[in-house]
TrEMBL record:
Pfam families: Ribosomal_L12
Domain Large ribosomal subunit protein bL12 C-terminal: 66-92
Keywords linked to the UniProt accession: Membrane, Ribonucleoprotein, Ribosomal protein, Transmembrane, Transmembrane helix
Membrane-spanning segments: 6-23
Protein name, per record: 50S ribosomal protein L7/L12
InterPro entries cross-referenced by the UniProt entry: Ribosomal_bL12_C, Ribosomal_bL12_C/ClpS-like
Length: 93
C-alpha cells in the first residue's frame, strides 16, 4: 500500500515537472516574440533584454576592470538572460 502511494507521488511529480518545463519553454518563446516586436516597432526599452546606457557603461566598466563575473551578474540581474547569453553579451562589449 505504501509503495503504491510512493510510486503515485513520484509519477505525479514527474508529470508536474514535465508540464512546468513545457510552460517555461512556451514563456521563453513568447518573450522572444515580444522582443522581436519591440525591436521592430522601435520600443527597445520594453524588450526583455533591454539594457539602459547607464547600465551598459557600468557593465563595460566592470569588464574593463577585470570583473567579468560581476559584469555577467549585473547583466543577469537587469535582464532575463541566462548565464551563457549574459556571458556572450559581456564578451561582445
Amino acid at each position: 500500500m505504501e509503495l503504491g502511494i510512493i510510486v503515485l507521488v513520484i509519477i505525479g511529480g514527474l508529470l508536474l515537472f514535465i508540464e512546468i518545463d513545457k510552460l517555461k519553454k512556451q514563456v521563453k518563446s513568447q518573450q522572444k516574440q515580444i522582443d522581436t516586436l519591440c525591436e521592430q516597432t522601435g520600443n527597445n526599452q520594453l524588450a526583455t533584454y533591454h539594457i539602459s546606457d547607464e547600465d551598459k557603461e557600468l557593465i563595460l566598466h566592470l569588464k574593463n576592470s577585470g570583473k567579468d563575473v560581476e559584469a555577467v551578474k549585473k547583466v543577469r540581474e537587469i535582464t532575463a538572460m541566462g548565464l551563457v547569453e549574459a556571458k556572450q553579451y559581456v564578451d561582445t562589449l
